[in-house]
Structure formats: C-alpha cells, structure tokens
Amino acid sequence: MHRAAYLLLLSTMLLWGGNSVAGKLAVGHVSPLTLVFLRWVMAVLILLPFGWRPLREDWPKLRRHWRLVAALGTCGFTFFNVIFYTALNYTTAINVSIEQAAIPIVIILANFIFFRMRVQALQIVGVALTIVGVALTASHGDLPQLLKLDLNFGDAIMLVAVLCYSLYSVGLRLKPAIRWQSLMLALSISALLTSVPFFIWEIVAGRVIVPDAHGWALTLYTALGASVIAQIFYIKGNELIGANRAGLFINLVPIFGTLLSVLIVGEQFQPYQAFALALVLGGIALAEYSGSRTVLQTG
Question: EamA domain location, by residue (predicted)?
C-alpha cells in the first residue's frame, strides 16, 4: 500500500513540477486566468466520456455532500491556482517557493486542530529538512540571500493560497464514498464554474492573451497532466497514507520543477540542486519512517 502511495505521489509532484515549467513557458502565449479557465474546460471534456455515467449513478450520495465537494473543487483547484498566478505578478518565484513549502506545516496544524491528529518528533524533523531543501533551491544555493527578501502584497495573498490547498488536502478525508471518476468530474465542474468570474474579469480588464499554438499545447498539458492525472494520483495517495504524510511530498514540486527546467529549458545544473533533492527526499523518508511506525503501533 505504501509503495503504491509513494509512486502515485512522486508522479504527482513530477507532473506539478512540469506545471511550474509550463507556467514559465506560457508567458506571452496565454494569460494566467485564461489558462486557469481553459485548463478546467479541457479537464471536464477529458473526464466526461468515462465520468458522466458514474456521476449519474453516484448522484444520490454526491447530492448529500455537494456543498463539501464544491468547496473542495473551488478551494483546491480554482482559488489556489488563481491566487498562485496572481501572487507571481507581485512577488518573486523565490518567495512563492518558500511560502508554498508551508503547506505541509499547515496541513499538520489543521489536522491537529480539527481531528486531534498528532505527529512524532521525527516527522517534524523530516518536515524541517524538506523546507531547508526548498529554501536551498529557491535561493540558488545561497541561503543568506533569503534574509534580503522583501515581503509584499504578493506574499500575503500567497499565504491565502497555501491555506486553500492545505484545507483542500485535509478536507479530502471527508469526501463522500463515491468512485474516483465521479469525484474528479464533480471537482472539475466546480473548478470550471468558479473560474468563470476570474476569466470574465481578465476579459473586462483587457488582459486576455488568446492562446497561440504554443499556448494551446501548454494548456493541454496543464489540463491532462497537472489537473486530471496529477489530481487523481494526489487524491489516491492522500487516501492511502493520509494528508499529513501525503502533503509533505508537495515540497518536491520546486525541486522537480528546477530539475525539469534543466532538462527542458536548458538551464544549467548546479550541485546545490542535487543536495536540495537529497534533503527533501531524506526528510520525506524520515517522516515516513516515523509516520508508518506510528500507524503500525496504533493499528
């Protein structure tokens, strides 16, 4: 069970790391809020052929929990991405990477507040190691540079994005017992509907960049890879080992994003990137060792 969860979560973070690269490549080819809207249009169209029938059959259960499912789709799928892209207009990618590393911490705190779930000391050490790895990546191997960062409006709203995705991750434990096809389609429809006002605002503000061929290709990747496949994998991984442990893998996203930039964009590979990857993987392994032992002892 754990091996399956690890494979699913590692694949998820690799796809999300690719999404970071796609976001860089999309600049000038498709505007941010248009990208958010179109990725969920495509995601719904991809899911409809094999999700519509299960959704109809699961509708009696889903109807009783539609507010929760709508909130999860809105919070985790739409709000996080809209705020993430908006934050990058006001602050640096370094700041965003560091702030995104707070997601596992917020997940742990939320699980303790709402469900009284405790963590072991080794899990805390593991979380700390992953954060150091992210910081090393974000600072390009020069940690003292982080002391010179300026905090601004973008950083403040990025913390809202961190809260949104953390609550989404924790809230998945409350999802109704329906098939994954039904759940993903319902979440994606919620995300699509709530992305419409942001898309309209971008049109009214005159900031829309209609995707060109390059933009459509990147949008398709974000829809199929980063939205449909990655979210299915994350939900399943979360289900297998819990939000506290699954959330920690999120700190691999900036690491994978950096390594993929080396492979795809042609950026130069640096020794600190290998060290950062080792720190994050080591932190996850340490936290997993402690977390799995706790499950065995209490199971």
Answer: 5-137, 153-286
